[in-house]
Amino acid sequence: MYQQQQAAVSTENLLRNSDYARNMKEVVEKWAKGNAGKRVVNYRSAVERILCETDYDIGSIDREMMKNLWKKFGWSDRNIWPLTAWNSFCRFGAALSPDAFPPSCIIQKERQGLAALPPQMAHEIEDILAAHVVRTTGSKIKKQSQRQILRSFEAFRDFVVKNEPARSVSALSDFTGDDAQKFCDILVKTGASPFTSRKISPNAIAAILINLRRVFKMGLRQRKLGGNIFQGLAIEKYKTAKREFCLTKEQVEKLRTVGVDSCESMKLAKRFEQIRDNAMVSTQYEPALRSEDTVYLCWEDLPAHERSKANVGPVVVRGGKSRPDQHEDRIYIPLNRLDADLYRWKKISQEYCAAKGIVPPVITVNGREYHPIFFSKTGKPLSPASYSHIFSRQLKKAGISLPKGYKTHIIRHSRITHWVDEGMAFEKVHENARHADLDETWRYFHSNASKRIEAVEKLYGLDKDSRAMRSEALPKSAILRTIIEIVINSVRGEKRFDSEPLGVAITEIEKAIRANCVDCVPAAQCYTYREVMDKWGIGRTQTYERMRTLEHMGLVTPMARSNKKIVYLKEEIDRINALVDSRKASVAFGYKEKVPTTIPGLVQKGMVKSTKIGKLHFFEPDELVEHFYEKNRK
Prior knowledge:
6 domains; three-stranded antiparallel beta sheet
């Protein structure tokens, strides 16, 4: 009897629990509909997992249980969106049924306890920032940068107050140089963020200190502060090493065409997202844009009237990095592929907007309306953070994994590398990259091992095209037979070729063939152009003129070496160097003439032979000696 009563109670509890779970599922459904289009709804599955894991007992959920669930589900500590979605769901549920959703179920996010700046200090900083004009752009400091600066001062003041609780720090003048030095030392020593206590990079620490120094420096220049407490403080900022990785063209093509084959079977919303994500990757890749440039690009930034007949035209980037808001950069590229991808996106976006009753976003800049190319399912403009999530999703779908630290910017690196590989002049690559200097563009070029091998092969004529044998390149039959005979004689009886690498054997045979060529002269029997200049003791221009005359007369035969450098036979150059001109001959034989006429006169009489180079006569020393010996003997 007792067992039957217990069974009845458990059945009743089970029914009650099942009804409770059904009610909770209905609340989840209502919450999702009530927040349609908001980002928290994307984490509905996370809310359902938490409910399922706790058997829908919302009252039992506290911070400790949530931490355990985070570990169990393998969620990152930095991923706050599941918690944001859970709190949103609990607040929605509390409005419907306060008894079922106690206040303890809302888990507040853990934040670093940084107190807000005193009004006087905040006003001083804002006043200094408002009066400053950025030198490179000619505009005010951006709002995001101002928020970062204020956060840096919150951390600095928090550090000072914790060290000296009794001290009053309500204005910028209350900070001292000792405070600055101690704050810098503790950040460098711990390597931890003053906001989250997590480890951060040395450059992130340097950015916090530079923000502080910047305000004091601006305040001193504006005569609003008495001094710069960070002056002379060494702030180390490290240059990151050049990254040696970029995506191949095949990998980029995968990212641009993810899910194309299955698009027809997708629902309209899924098709809208997939074609948009593909088009965003394509739009960033073709002109090598930054992620923020891709997100903010508008249809008006693709002016059709500026295109050539070959459909080469500009992609206009307005107010890019470190540029004024009104500044425009133009990136000239072929637009055929980009047009095709954007046409597909425009078509699906118009269909989606018509079906959902959504109006695409419009922004106004300086009184002119612009229409962003990309937008969300709710018709709102996207942010760079949204594109980062889209890119991660594309990578996962395409089955591509990137090294740690690589994000959307790898697309820009890859495009710049591909431009160089395609043969675009580096100056034009630099113009399209829109960097401040060529060194920065060079850091974006990542040549892999295969590309380096190809470059070396092309330089030395060892690439595939150079090695391809063509019938018209073969020598005449007799010469070809001679070459074959030389190869056979070189290999016959040479057992060393069996053990040596193929490259060594080919080199030996090549030497043997070249040695049998009639125009093959060893390097020891030739002079280079520089050596000829030194031999004659004249300048480059005079050597060039004389050499051209000698070539025309057939007295010198220039020869091309294997490295395409021109050399000259020592025998010919030494013979010409041994000749004596008219002036030297006149002086040698005792004629005191300002203009030598006696010895050239002998040439006209046919008594002495000369070699005329240009307008000058040159004589063989032996012949002159013989002539004067015979004359004196008679």
